[in-house]
Amino acid sequence: MNHLLSIEQLSAKEIVSLLESAAHLKRQRGRDGKPLDGQTWALIFTKSSTRTRVSFEVGIRELGGFPMFLSKNDIQLGRGEPIKDTARVLGRMVHGTIIRTFAQQDVVDFSEYSGIPTINALTDDEHPCQILADLLTINEKLGGWEGKKIAFIGDGFSNMTRSWMWAAKRLGFELAIASPVTCQPPAEFLTELNAPNVTVTTDPATAAKNADVINTDVWLSMGQEDQKDKELEFAGFQVNAGLLAAAAPGHIVLHCLPAYRGKEISEEVLELHANTIFQQAENRLHAQKAVLVAIAR
Ligand code: CP
Ligand code: NVA
Predict the structure, then answer these.
(1) pLDDT tens-digit map of 253-297
(2) Residue to substitute in 45, 48, 52, 101 for testing ligand 1 pocket (most ligand atoms within 8 angstroms of CB)
(3) Rounded to an integer, what distance in angstroms lies between the CA atom of residue 94 and that of residue 117?
(4) How large is the angle between the packed helices 159-171 and 128-142, nearest 10 degrees?
(5) What angle (nearest 5°) sits at the alpha carbon of residue 281, between those of residues 285 and 209?
(6) What is the value of pTM for the model shown?
(7) Using CA atoms in the order 254, 260, 264, 270, what is the torsion angle rounded to 10 degrees?
(8) Measuring from atom 6 of ligand 1, which residue has the nearest CA?
(9) Catalytic annotation on 79?
(10) Which of 10, 20, 142, 164 could form a disulfide with 14 if both were Cys (CB 3.0 to 4.6 A apart)?
């Protein structure tokens, strides 16, 4: 594995191996080797972040490396320097790069032009690091995804849904997505995915019925904050006690965070499932350390 650009590009074997490594690194935290000893890893972020930034900075340090955070305003990228030129400069100086931005193509271009390990820390298309942490949490809480039904209630067009759909394709679990009619996964994407285990409905109750995992995300992703009309489409799509009543016994609730209480999730449900949701947030650290170990040179 040279890069982590998407879940789409991972095989089932690679996903399982990363999760095993993450669980091992979690158990032995504080007794890490130093595979990144002497290395500098750049974090280029053109969108906000709490979890991703902190978990990568801490993880790189724990593995012996030095993180260098570069917001778009810190570097010439924010003034229009092309990503391919930024990549060719950083590729000659740092040992790896983690990028959070809008276009997936920018992450792909960076990996090609820089020649150094590159990690997608969220684009408009995918959020692979989050999915790895989510799968680790499902392993810990439910003993795995085999035979489990995973529901996603929310924006079917978002990076999280797309990464979940690729995870379902690779791993074979049942994924039921409930989205408003205007925010469903594009038909051409579903054709390309060709996964009979992924279903899409406009009815949250149908998706949540007998689900072992109920998953949600913000209604307006980063960059969409002014699309207040879009938010109106999500009436009836809140993860709340009523929706969970039909879920499977022993179900868990996941939220990648940040959460907007009273919108995609009720205060009551978030607090009732806070133990799982913040374990999920912590798992970002362990999952990403596994990715760093796998791709560092
Ligand atoms: N879930 C997630 O990626 O959180 P941040 O936006 O805070 O990094
Ligand atoms: N879909 C959300 C995920 C945040 C972690 C966004 O892109 O803003």
Answers:
(1) 999 999 999 999 999 999 999 999 999 999 999 999 999 999 999
(2) 52
(3) 10
(4) 60
(5) 135
(6) 0.98
(7) 40
(8) 49
(9) no
(10) 10
Q: Which ligand sits nearest to residue 160's alpha carbon?
A: 2
Q: Show the domains of the chain with their CATH numbers.
A: 12-126+284-295 (3.40.50.1370), 130-281 (3.40.50.1370)
Q: Which residue has the tokens 């806070």?
A: 274
Amino acid 173 reads F
* 8 A C-beta contact, residue 246 and residue 210: yes
Is 248 in contact with 149 (CB distance < 8 Å)? yes
Spatial neighbors of 268 by CB under 8 A, at least 6 apart, are 240, 241
Beta-strand ranges (E) seen in the chain are 40-45, 66-71, 96-100, 118-120, 149-153, 174-178, 198-201, 213-216, 252-255
Question: Does an H or E element contain 206, and which?
Answer: helix 204-208
Sequence letter at residue 64 = G
Q: And the tokens for 164?
A: 């979940």
Q: For residue range 209-240, list pLDDT tens digits in order.
A: 999 999 999 999 999 999 999 999 999 999 99
